[in-house]
């Protein structure tokens, strides 16, 4: 099984190819359906890769995709978590799982969506949706929503295949670390990329998709051309005048390629071609090695959101700048008080309490 990238009307699309070098027709149909309802390119790519793993598992089990049942999906979860990724290898000692709980849940959701789609077309009759859900009382939710007192006695569907995810520790960078990362850039293109990710809060895919005309020097703003979410596409973010100066210097000194893409390869056989994900992550890897800071592109986005919040920017504004459809996503995932802020707030409160006692 392999994923093959194709260009259709100038857009990247993805095919799952089997061992006989033929497209897997049900997956092709499913991805076409997702494309028609407006799913983002990154979603199509991810789903194609997730289904590749599922069909590899089915091949190993020598089972057709129509023979699925609850036990098989439970075994697939174990296969995904197995470090050897094999149904034939049993771990005698406890070892670290191959994939995180979050990743496994995402991959299982993709498979369930695939079967939900098949259920709605003529050649498939099994309804896995009902078999993989159970009714749970509202008071057993992991969080209490608004008007909890009204909904707590009611029942809702819970996915029984979903495994419990540990609470993730979200990491941000200090000002000194951000400066160190910037100083470690080996050329002006890399420095511009770091500045755009940090000052604009862009996802790495959004940054790599930028065209030269997306930069508005007069307003020191950038319009996001492509995004993984509908709400993120077309939004406008703002950067410093210094970053716009770096952008102009970069165009004058380095960008002599016949392409509208801002970030391009500066050397090698692909010189002048748009920078791809792997090349961008190689940049981050070099910076990580130089600084010994365990940085990822998304950490810059988290840092951006946290700094805006600490400067008193309303969460609804941060939501728009990040391109989130729901403000809850911004609050729960991206706004994190730093240890320094927590310490300062505690000291302030402690001082006020001491002052009150002395009066």
Protein architecture, described:
The model has no long low-confidence stretch (mean pLDDT 81). The protein has two domains: 126 residues, Orthogonal Bundle (DNA polymerase, domain 1), CATH 1.10.150; 166 residues, Intergrase catalytic core (hpI Integrase, Chain A, Orthogonal Bundle). It is 49% helix and 9% strand. The strands form three sheets. The chain has a three-stranded antiparallel sheet with strand order 5-6-7, with no helix packed on it. The chain has a two-stranded antiparallel ribbon with strand order 1-2. The radius of gyration is 24 Å and the shape is globular. The chain is mostly helical and 359 residues long. It contains 15 helices and seven strands.
Order of helices and strands: EEHHHHHEHEHHHEEEHHHHHH
CATH architecture of the largest domain: Orthogonal Bundle
CATH topology of the largest domain: hpI Integrase, Chain A
Strand order of the largest sheet: 5-6-7
> Would you tell me the overall average pLDDT?
81
Poorly predicted runs are none
Largest sheet: 3 strands, antiparallel
**What is the name of the CATH class of the largest domain?**
Mainly Alpha
Distance between the termini: 75 Å
Percent of residues in β-strands: 5-15%
Number of continuous helical runs: 15
Give helix % range.
40-55%
Radius of gyration, in Å, reads 24 Å
Q: What is the subunit organization of this protein?
A: single chain
Give a count of the beta strands, DSSP E runs of length 2 or more: 7
